[in-house]
Amino acid sequence: MNTRQYSISLLLFFILIAFFIPLSLAPLFDLDEGAFSEATREMIVGKDYITTYLNGELRFDKPILIYWFQLISVKLFGLNEFALRLPSAIAGTLWAGAIYFFTKRFFDIRTAFFATLFMIVSIQINMIAKAAIADALLNLFIALSMFCVYLFYDQRGKKYIYFTFLFMALGMLTKGPVAVMIPFIISFLFFAFKNELRLWLKTVFNPVGLLIFLAVASPWYIAEYIAQGQLFIDGFFFKHNISRFSSPMESHSGNIFYFVPVLIVGLMPFTYFAIKALTNVKNYFKSDLEFYLLIWFLFVFLFFSFSGTKLPHYVIYGYTPLFILAGLQFKNNFSKAWLAYPLLVLLTILLFLPEIATFFKANIHDALASVLIENALDSFDVLYRVLIVGTIVFIVLLLFLKVKKDTFIIGIALSMVISVNYIVIPAYGKLMQQPIKEAAILAKDRGYKDIIMYKVNTPTFNVYYENLVSRDKPHRNDIVFTKVSKLKDFKSYEVLYQKNGFCLIRVKDE
Asked: Does pTM surpass 0.90?
């Protein structure tokens, strides 16, 4: 097996254990996975393939493409976690493949391998690359469009212009204007620095490219406008796009340094190489591609740092160039400690997470959070701790045994993938989401109708219940799903199910 075959085989192994095998290891998570999955379920039931609804109400958060892909997957594999998450895992795989082949084209197999490995095993990508949300798909199309922009600059082939417009259109169908804004502004900045603005203008207004974009992106937008009119314009464009930048939405705010800790933690276990990449800024002016990648990352980082609404996954739009720049750093000498110690600290925190949460419990005023802390030992159990300790021992052995540099890096990568996907996420899912799933399945199996969701917002309940819920005020004999902290609102009730702070009750006296 030659170097190329070996590198691709190893990357496919990591993709399998990071993106695909874990798809069914945890229930769907609220709110985002629940909202996307429930909207897809309601699309299947209602047979409205243009407009999305959440619990029977219009949902204008995102365009249509991820829902169509989830719908196809559910039709093939049934309504379950595997099917709902599968489109993201496939998108994550294609995204990794795009990074590998683009990087190999301009650098070498080794840089391509480590850039792609970095992408696959980093904490944030491990989260979104198999989550039933739109972000893995969006990042795929952003990466492809940005790669095509540079390929056009380098090769001057018109086919790359056409592919850029195609991928921007697909991104527009996935999450909206951000998929156009990022390639548009970054390409402008890059071409301006290279004194190629006339070429940029000709490219932006390429008639064939514009026709491709309109042919792919516009039919759904037109159809949705015909179906919903001004409600669509106000809800999608003004509320969920323009307002997100101008002001905080849903309490998702933060200062301009918000994404610094996100980067440090989100890029583990190879944050060290990302930092090394960012300290070599002066060297990137010597290479057109490295300069292009730097502009790409910096624009995304700065733009969303000054955005009114801040969410951790926004900065991921700029991770692809950082993975490639960091991949170049793997050639250099490094201290094993810079990779091992941060991961050991993280695993130690995770090992004692129930005790740490208990220590801070007195300062937590959320009643549900307090109940979850009290029940944490049932999920973060002996097996969880044995697995964490085993991973710690493995890393310590890697640190002190005389293993080759590449073997050490792969061992650290494997430790991260196992920890995140097979230990931490299943334990958290068991604590937080399993009770919601069990209550919903019980309600479905017993044939309970017209369930009221009272002072709790968990759309995953709808997915597993396979029906809508009401938000009305509960009355006698109503079946209610709520938090234990809200039981005080009822004079008398029968508990049908209760676990980890969530309960299903029948109201006896309101």
From this structure: yes
